[in-house]
Design goal:
2 copies of one chain form a homodimer.
Chain A (H helix, E strand, L loop, with lengths): L22 H16 L6 H7 L6 H6 L2 H26 L5 H18 L3 H12 L5 H24 L6 H19 L1 H6 L6 H23 L2
Helix pairs in contact in A: 1-2, 1-4, 1-6, 4-5, 4-6, 4-7, 5-7, 5-10, 7-8, 8-10
Chain A binds a DNA duplex (30 and 30 nucleotides) through helix 3.
Chain lengths: 221, 221
DNA sequence: ACTGGATTCAAACAAGTGTTTTATACATGT
DNA sequence: ACATGTATAAAACACTTGTTTGAATCCAGT
């Protein structure tokens, strides 16, 4: 099994450029899914290797160990998250704060529902719940930038400085609703059986409407 | 260590009534805290026994094993949760739906902040995130009753039947905010360093104001 | 054909897990 | 005092964990 395709066509490609494209990527892919759905500790290297049809020693060979594999998984997660943040920024460029907030919610939910990147947010949520050593990097490169953008949108709705304590509270209220749809089986009971694009759109409209009204109400406090 | 006090004063108390009051309860207490903060799998019986100053075999002796201990911890958690639900019901009896929802939020947050029962809700959240065998019992005895009450309050605010799909969505929006304050270190960053009674009251006011406005906005959809 | 580096494989390892076992101390009932 | 059932203690058990080892296999370059 696992026909090796290491630079089989590229005539004189430098061998070091593509160190591997087969089992290494399979491990990376399956590990990402397993880590996201069950958590780092609950997943065994034997689970991953079996799922990826790889030998038990493959993880240590390609990534130096379970921790190294997890670090690599987190790396691609961080990069995709940054891309999503950029998409959120573009979607709200030159629009009103209300539309910016709604766009952020919609882009997020659409990514979760339609793309194959749901595991990324699940993984991020696990890192927030019980952080590993990589949490500081995640906070700085992913969470802070996105929260900064949403904070500015919320402050725009409230017509108050971003440093206002109520802005942080509203941030929590909005983020909480987005996170709730990820971690729990409750999400699957809301949007049966899988979160379709239509479900995501309906959810986005609900959370946006609910949250904007909430933020406005807090603003008059 | 661990001076045994098994009915040492009660002259002729039936020996079977108080099978143990010392190490068994210490195990129960410490296990509850550890299970809530780290999860069932991450906590070892050696951790619990060391924390409770008990012998390694004590858990198997008193509870028949790690699983039996966890079941017993869940039992007391369920009972306390039911008491909290009752308190929420009493706090909102004969009041408007708005006040009922606010009372539910306030009672919940007050319990989390002031009493020593924070671990209970953390444990419940873990059960929701990745359920064990006991999840069905929890759903039926704890989650369903409380959600039914909050659903009726929300439907009251919206002036629509409780079966309306938007009611379920609003339920999610409210619950998500409450849950967000439990599991994550984010809570400790919002309310530094420990959640005081004043913090809980401020948070309760925020979530109530935010949520009631959100529900009202959804109602006009 | 063959050499050399990269990759895969089966087997074993050391450490940590929950549990069981066996023995000992204790308070109580007769 | 003695026997009895309860509780604690230390050691060992069987099992799973991540990791390491050393041989086997593959493929490109000569």
């Amino acid at each position: 099994m696992s026909s090796r395709r290491t630079h089989v066509v590229t005539a004189t490609a430098t061998p070091a450029d593509t160190p591997d494209l087969e089992t290494r990527d399979r491990l990376l892919h399956e590990a990402a899914l397993l880590f996201a759905t069950h958590g780092f500790d609950s997943v065994t290297v034997r689970d991953i290797c079996q799922q990826a049809h790889a030998n038990l020693a493959a993880i240590n060979y390609h990534f130096g160990g379970k921790a190294g594999l997890y670090a690599e998984v987190l790396n691609v997660a961080i990069q995709t998250m940054q891309a999503t943040t950029e998409e959120i920024r573009k979607a709200g460029a030159g629009r009103s704060p209300d539309q910016q907030l709604e766009a952020a919610i919609r882009v997020f939910l659409t990514r979760v529902a339609t793309t194959k990147d749901k595991w990324i947010h699940q993984l991020m949520l696990r890192e927030v719940a019980n952080p590993t050593a990589a949490f500081d990097a995640i906070l700085k490169r992913v969470l802070e930038p996105r929260m900064a953008y949403m904070r500015s949108a919320i402050a725009g709705i409230m017509r108050c400085p971003v440093s206002d304590r109520r802005v942080a509270l509203c941030m929590m209220s909005v983020q909480a609703q987005l996170h709730a749809l990820l971690n729990s089986p409750l999400a699957e009971r809301l949007a049966s059986p899988r979160l379709t694009a239509a479900d995501a759109d309906r959810l986005a409209r609900h959370i946006a409407c609910f949250s904007i009204a909430g933020v406005r109400a807090i603003a008059t406090t």
